[in-house]
Structures are given as structure tokens and as C-alpha cells.
Amino acid sequence: MDDNRNTETSGSNNIERIFGENVFSPSTMRERLPKQVYQKVRKIIDEGGELSRGDADVVAKAMKDWAVERGATHFTHWFQPLTGITAEKHDAFITAPDEDGHTMAEFSGKELVMGEPDASSFPSGGLRSTFEARGYTTWDLTSPAFLKHSSAGYTLCIPTAFCSYTGEALDKKTPLLRSMEALNTQSLRLIRLFGDKTSRKVTPSVGAEQEYFLVDRDKYQKRPDLIFTGRTLFGAPAPKGQEMEDHYFGVIREGVGAYMKDLNEELWELGVPARTQHNEVAPCQHELAPIYENANVATDHNQIIMEAMKRVAIHHDMRCLLHEKPFACVNGSGKHNNWSLTTDTGINLLEPGDTPEDNVQFLLVLSCILKAVDVHADLLRQSASDVGNDFRLGENEAPPAIVSVFLGEQLEDVVKQLIETGNASKHIQGGVLRTGVSTLPDLKKDATDRNRTSPFAFTGNKFEFRMVGSADSIASANTVLNTIVAEAFSEVSGILEKADDFGGTVHDLIKKNLTEHRRIIFSGNGYSDTWIKEAARRGLPNIKSTIEAASALTTDSAVSLFACFGIFTKAELASREEITYETYAKTINIEALTMIDMAGRQILPACMHYSGRLATTINAMATAGVSTAAESGRLNEVATLINEADNALTNLRALDEQASHVEDVKKQAFFYKDSVNPAMGALRKPCDQLELLVDKAMWPFPTYEDILFNA
Ligand code: ADP
Ligand code: MG
């Protein structure tokens, strides 16, 4: 990889030296830009606004010079279309050759600020048909440009937002940025009421813990299902699973350690603060957690992490699987989205304060979040859904599909006291709430009391939203979180701004929010059946699949919420709902076709070959007068399963064909879920049983045992 990486210096010095080396960071800008231009850029980063054309030219030149000095030949507007991954189209820094045949490395402010990729091949969910196919990418100054090093050399990547000709968002970044702005406005309103006159900005902080699997490249390449769908569509469980719990936090294998080292170094160079790494629960499963950053940069960095994980694996003759459920019967992968709210003066609004007044603000913020999560549970659930995550949520290894909040024993006790106190006037004395909670317990200590089954857990000074899938972008989850909390803040601020008795009104609001939304609090075992029943009794939604969750985007409540804060128009929401159905149908279709191919051309021929050989053996044995009881028994068993698999294959073919003719995209998605999915299961079952009966030497591809235990 990078040449200067070979000088092995150890420990933290090394990190300090390489960290951010490939980032056009604020400090690099300060060094390389004229002071005035730098100050303008800085102001836009902090407060928003637009750079003039002249200034953009200056920045573009400095950026290009910096990139070219480091070996870059190309630049790209790096964006996040609704495919969930990133997109890039590279252009060389090159001008048309002059008469002497010379060319120059050039890059203008215009090219920096705006790009015009053809949008027609990205999902637009109908927005495209009504408008032009043209899409625009615009530079996001708040996420630094970086140099990506791959086999294509060094490419200058400029983080951008991606919109249609008429300004509709076609990506994940645009709504996220809009939601951060809305939350900033509403948070400032709230903290001003509590006397904070100095903070100028409130930003959601996000740390996303990323789980992944690493498997051997050669084995991966022998499995069409892994290649085409990212998960195994067949496979009997290995004799050993994760029941011994010997992998979690276990010693990291040498090969994996070398991978992690390269991955970390690449991420550090890209300015990604990768911090924690460990083995996860399942064999071959690992986790990487960076230090938290603002939600926009954290989202971009999570994309960079996922991309680097895949790229670095190739250099180590491995493949990185980011799918939520690559293997049946062992844990899948998720992404814990840790979220808090921080002022530019360094105050975390989710941190209980030292004074009673601070604590009152904390309790109001907390009550607002509970309300937001309860009122918009369906949207939060939707924001964490993707096709692969359907295998995970509610499957006793990840949070259930029911959204609830875990507060921890102490905080729950505080909530109980607050709900049970009388009206405010009796309980306010000298501006302090007399609720028994004028000083809050040290909640950080309490955070060690963990509930791994909760989808939304308070962990001392942040919330951990645990539903997001490992392959998914964290943008949607944070967009929804930011927006619903902005709404709750806006409602209480509206009331408080008009209140004569501030203290009493705050108390009433806290109590009202907590009382009305207490049902969302749950500290028990989220995996238990009793919780499913209890949640139904409480009226909490239990949305089982991605496509059932999709309609949450266009309910009246969602449309008015997003319109009110300028996050999404109704058309943008409808387009996102439609893309969900489209993506679902396409994904299941690919999976079905892959199964048809593997069963038809690999599994059944191998099984038939085996049964043919058995038959020949039986004939020879019978001729020799030897008993063939065992052989005949095996042959019968195998023949029966082959027959079952063959019928299931025919059925799956027919249903997949039928699905392709369903016109309405929503109906089509549901047809895939309700008809094609079960047919896939019906084909898998006899095939997995056959795997356990057929001569291993004849099995056409590596098994779970080969992949997970002989890596
Ligand atoms: P835990 O053990 O509670 O999961 P860690 O300290 O390992 O906590 O952090 C997990 C993730 O949460 C990391 O990415 C970390 O940077 C992030 N995190 C820590 N504090 C905050 C915070 N205040 N806001 C957002 N994310 C945070
Ligand atoms: Mg955690």
C-alpha cells in the first residue's frame, strides 16, 4: 500500500503521524488557502452558506495541488444514491492537449462545487419520470474531501449531495443535512429557554459500531450465493456453532490481526478515528467502532469504513461480508448507532448535569426523546429496515422488531417518581423540582447495567439505536432520529416560550411527556414471547418486514412531520417508499435465481451422481450376495429428498416467473415476500438435509464447516 507506511514506528506516534494524511482537512486548508478564503470556508462549515465562484476557484486549485502532490490523477464527486452504497465517476485532472501536445492538470471551482452525473441509472422512485434524468451533485463543505487509494491509484473524493434538476433529494445525505439543521434550530431554541446564551450550534454526535464477517477468498469464490447475494442460500449448520461463546472477545487470529492492522492504517490515513476492534459472537465475525463524530461525517465515515473493509480484505485473500445474515443459525451483523446531542461549547444534552437546573433540562430532553420515539416508532423501525435486516430483527439475536426504550433501573425510578408527583405548583420550591430527583444519580455508572435485547437503550450519556443493519447506511436512521426529536423540542419550546410560570410549566411538560409515553419504556427481555404479547397490549407496533415498514414513510403523520421541518416533500417520501418495494423485489429475485441455479446445476447433479453411484454399488453387492440394507436405506432417503428438492425447484421457478409479471411494484414486493420467499425455504430444506447425507467429497461447494471453522 502506501510506501511511507513501511517505516514501522510503533504505537500512538504512528497513528499521530499518519492520521488524516489523506484528508484535505481544515488544518490543511488553513495552511494552503489565503487567510481570507480560509475564513470564508470555515464560516460556511460552521454556519452554512455558499462560496463565491472566485473563492471556489481558489479552493479547487489548492485542493488539486494538494491531491496531485500526493499522486492523485483523478477526482470524483462522491455521493450516496438510494442504493445504500456510494457512487463515484472519476475524471482525470486533464485539459485538452494544446498544439504542442501538452496538457495540464486542471480543476476549477465549478467542477468542485457542482457535478452533473446522469441520474437515470440510479433509483429515483418515480421522481425521475416526472422530471429530467439529470441529477446534480453539490459539494458538502462540512465533510472533508479525501484521497482514496485503490488499484485505480489515488482519487480525490469530494463528498457531495445528489439532487434532481428541480431540487428533489435523490440521495441519503441531503435529508440528513436538512435534519441536522432542523435539530440545530430546535435545540438552540430549547437551550436558550434554559439560559444558554453562548452556544451557537447543537449537533447530533454519532458513533456507529460496525459488525462484519471475514471469510477465505477461495471458499467464497466457490459459492455463487455469496458472490451474487452476499449471503448463503444453502448450508447445513456445522456441528459447532457459537454455543461455547469462545469467539466473543477471543484472541484475534493472526490472519485477521494483519487485516485489522491494514484496515486501521488505511482508515486513520483517511481521517476515520477507528478505535475499538474485537471478535464478535459468531465464528469469523468481528467488530470495529470509531470514535463518535458529527452525524454527517460519521455517516460518510461509515461508508468509508464499509468500503475499506471490503477492499482491504481482497489484499489479504479474504472477503468481507457485510450482509446482515450471511449464515443461517449463527448470529448476523448489525450496526449500533450511538447518538447524542452536543453544543459547540462542549455540552452533551444527554448528560445529566451537576445542578438541579441542568437536571431539569436533561429530564425535559429525555422526556422529549421518549415521546418522539413513541409517536414515531414506525418511522424509526422503517429507518433501520433493509432486505437483509429482515432476517435479524426479532430473531433472538438482535433487537426485536418492536421499538422500545431501555432507561436502566435508576433512571426508570426517576421517571416513576416524576409521573407520580402531583402538580407543579406544589412541587416547585426556589426553582428546584421537589421530586426527589433534584440531584440525579450518576447514570454513567448505571450504564454498565446493560440490556442487549433493547432496540433503543440509554447508555449513560447517549442513546444506542441497535436496529440498524450492518450493510445499511446510517443516514436514514439519523435523519429520522434528528427530525422526530426536533419535533418534540419544537413542541415544548413553543409552550415554554409563552409560559408565565417557566418552572411549573417545565415540570408539567416533563410529567405529561413521561405519563403519555411511558408505554415505550421497557427493561425486560426483548426476546421473550411475553414481551411480544405485552407490547401488543400496550399498542406498540410490531412491524415484521422491510416492505411492511415502508408505508410508514407516507402516513399523514410522517408527511406532515417531514414537511414541517423541510426534510422531505411528499413526493420525495413516496419515491423512497417505492424504491423500497423495487429493491426488495429485485433482491429476492436475484436470490431466487441464484438458488435455482445452484440447486439445478450444482446440488441436484451432485446428489444424483451420488445416488447413481450408490445404486451401482447396491447392484454389485446384491450380485455378490451381500446384504445392502444400509446402502438401500441411504439410497431411499437420498432419492426421496432429491425428489422433494426437484419439486421445490420446479415450484420456485414457476413462482419467480409469476412474480416477474406482477405489475404494481408494491404488490410485486409482497408477492416475493409471501410466495417466493417460502418457496425458497422449501427448496433449501431438502438440499440442506442432502448435504448431511451425500459423500462430502462430492458436495459441490464449501460448507458452513469449511467456511466458518477452517478459515
Ligand atoms: P459502549 O461500550 O457503551 O458501547 P463505547 O465507549 O464502546 O461504548 O462506544 C461505543 C460507540 O459509541 C463508539 O463509537 C463511541 O465513540 C460512541 N460514543 C461514545 N460516546 C458517545 C456520545 N456521547 N455520543 C455518540 N456516540 C458516542
Ligand atoms: Mg455498544
Q: Secondary-structure map with pairings?
A:
Layout: H1 11-18, H2 26-32, H3 35-47, H4 53-69, E1 72-78, E2 91-92, H5 109-113, E3 114-115, H6 127-130, E4 135-139, E5 146-150, E6 153-164, H7 173-193, E7 202-216, H8 217-221, H9 224-229, H10 254-269, E8 274-279, E9 285-290, E10 293-294, H11 295-315, E11 318-321, E12 335-343, H12 356-375, H13 377-383, E13 405-406, H14 409-420, H15 424-427, E14 428-429, E15 432-433, H16 443-446, E16 456-458, E17 463-465, H17 475-498, H18 502-516, H19 529-538, H20 546-549, H21 556-564, H22 570-623, H23 629-660, H24 665-691, H25 704-709
Parallel strand pairs: 1-6, 13-16
Antiparallel strand pairs: 1-2, 3-4, 4-6, 5-6, 7-9, 7-10, 7-11, 7-12, 8-9, 12-17, 14-15, 16-17
Helix pairs in contact: 7-17, 10-11, 12-17, 12-18, 13-17, 17-18, 22-23, 22-24, 23-24
The structure holds adenosine-5'-diphosphate (ADP) and magnesium ion.
